[in-house]
């Protein structure tokens, strides 16, 4: 009986080793597939860009220490819970590429990390599809707070480089994080005059809003304007716009 159990253990171990070898071979074949692997990275970059807020919220619960990283197994399970659009082998390859030496994965700014992977693998950011369509395009946005547009040093005015596939709500998040605005409503516009026809809808991508993109190293420049409505409170200090105290025009 004891010998049978030992033989069964050896058989299971050999089967696992064969499965591991088979998976590794499949992964190597996928990574060397050229255009297929490149297209996968492009699609994942866009997927991460559109869902970064969901990813931050999901993995933030697992990340008790606030390190910005989770174990690779938790990362895989989290992506599957969000219905990540990739096969098992593709997900395995992705986690192997993103993991660190202690088997953790940083879940912050994943779209840009995928871009780094593409560069590391010797692929071109400007790889073309069907001869003329850029896979990834970037735009440098001059972000201007409307009441202080003419102030060169105002903290509400800054620049940021984004994928043109990024949603407007991602830009709104960046503005809120960068400037520290706690507000009921923040809106972004194409023009300095905040007309309804110039307002950028949060669900739209920058490309859909008419922003032209280019290579990350030399992205075309454009300007967006924003304004916001403060939350109403009985406290006069909280109702006071802190920009009037920090900067003069």
Describe the structure concisely.
With 249 residues, the chain is of the alpha+beta class. Helices cover 44% and strands 16% of the residues. Helix 1 crosses helix 4, helix 2 (35-62) crosses helix 3 and helix 2 (35-62) runs antiparallel to helix 5 (110-120).
Structural features, described:
With 249 residues, the protein is of the alpha+beta class. It contains eight helices and eight strands. The protein has helices at residues 2-31, 35-62, 72-81, 88-98, 110-120, 168-179, 236-239, 243-246, and strands at 69-71, 104-106, 128-129, 133-134, 138-145, 158-163, 183-189, 221-230. A four-stranded mixed β-sheet has the order 6-5-8-7, with helices on one face. It has a two-stranded antiparallel sheet with strand order 1-2. A hairpin with a 3-residue loop joins strand 3 (128-129) and strand 4. Helix 1 packs across helix 4 (88-98), helix 2 (35-62) packs across helix 3 (72-81) and helix 2 packs antiparallel against helix 5. The longest helix is centred in the first third of the chain and has 30 residues, at 2-31. Mean pLDDT is 78; it is low at 122-134 and 241-249.
Radius of gyration: 23 Å
Provide the structure class.
alpha+beta
Major sheet size, sense and barrel closure: 4 strands, mixed
Mean pLDDT: 78
Strand content: 15-25%
Strand order of the largest sheet: 6-5-8-7
Order of helices and strands: HHEHHEHEEEEHEEHH
Low-confidence spans = 122-134, 241-249
Query: What is the rounded distance between the termini?
Result: 87 Å
Number of helices: 8
